[in-house]
Amino acid sequence: MSNRLPLYFIPHGAGPWPFMDLSSGVFGPPDNWQKLATHLKEIGETLLPAPKAILVVTAHWEAPVPTVSSHPSPGMLYDYGGFPAQTYQLNYPAPGSPALAQRVQSLLGEAGIANAEDKQRGFDHGTFIPLMLMYPQANIPVVQLSLQQQQDPGLHIAIGEALQPLRDEGVLIIGSGMSVHNMYAFRSPDPRHKQNAELFDVWLQEALALPEDERKARLKLWQKAPGGTASHQPTPEHLTPLFVVAGAAGNDTARRTFAEELIELKVSEYRFG
Question: Which single residue of 101, 214, 255, 258 could bond 210 by disulfide (Cβ 3.0 to 4.6 Å)?
Answer without folding.
Answer: 214
